[in-house]
Hints:
The structure holds 2 protein chains of 2 kinds.
Chain A: E1 3-7, E2 10-13, E3 19-26, E4 32-38, E5 44-52, E6 55-58, E7 64-70, E8 73-78, E9 87-97, E10 100-105, E11 109-113
Parallel strand pairs in A: 2-11
Antiparallel strand pairs in A: 1-3, 3-8, 4-5, 4-9, 5-6, 7-8, 9-10, 9-11
Chain B: E1 3-5, E2 10-14, E3 19-21, E4 24-26, E5 33-39, E6 46-52, E7 60-61, E8 64-69, E9 74-79, E10 88-95, E11 107-109, E12 113-118
Parallel strand pairs in B: 2-12
Antiparallel strand pairs in B: 1-4, 3-9, 5-6, 5-10, 7-8, 8-9, 10-11, 10-12
Amino acid sequence: SQTIHQWPATLVQPVGSPLSLECTVEGTSNPNLYWYRQAAGRGLQLLFYSVGIGQISSEVPQNLSASRPQDRQFILSSKKLLLSDSGFYLCAWRHLRTGGDEQYFGPGTRLTVT
Amino acid sequence: AQTVTQSQPEMSVQEAETVTLSCTYDTSESDYYLFWYKQPPSRQMILVIRQEAYKQQNATENRFSVNFQKAAKSFSLKISDSQLGDAAMYFCAYRSAWVRRSGTYKYIFGTGTRLKVLA
């Protein structure tokens, strides 16, 4: 069965520090992967998505970036964090099957920028 | 650009009663999917129900059903016989048509409705 992992689960970082959040998927190949940020009162905001290694589409070109170094690995990064980067970050994998099309989500990373 | 609007930040329902959560969306596309996701306190997102835009019949999953009004661009979720375990944040989501430049689909989420179930 397919499983999606996110690391770390919780992170507290000072303003101006770098960021690296990791998402890995098991049990499937060539997955479509997505990064979302969930801030209070704003729902899930789509940040980046990727269909394969090195292929990144950006929805929100802030101070965040994403990379797909391996087929089942998706990384969210920042060179210098802002207070506004605080939030809950979710990675999702798109599952296409007969009769359905849906996303499965990882457990998330709670980021607090201080 | 597509948008998804959930106008009810919070709703309450008595246990065993029925509640309806509202969702409207805006799009010019004809090929899309709509979803309702549940996010309990654990924050793990769980798919509740899915509706393909080309299907006129409303989707149903046990106690959960939708009222899909395509012309009105409305997609409400009805929860029957509410249970304490239904208490969660509920998100309405829209899957776009194929995005040629990226080679996949985009998913747009609403801001969510927090559902409280009263014992």
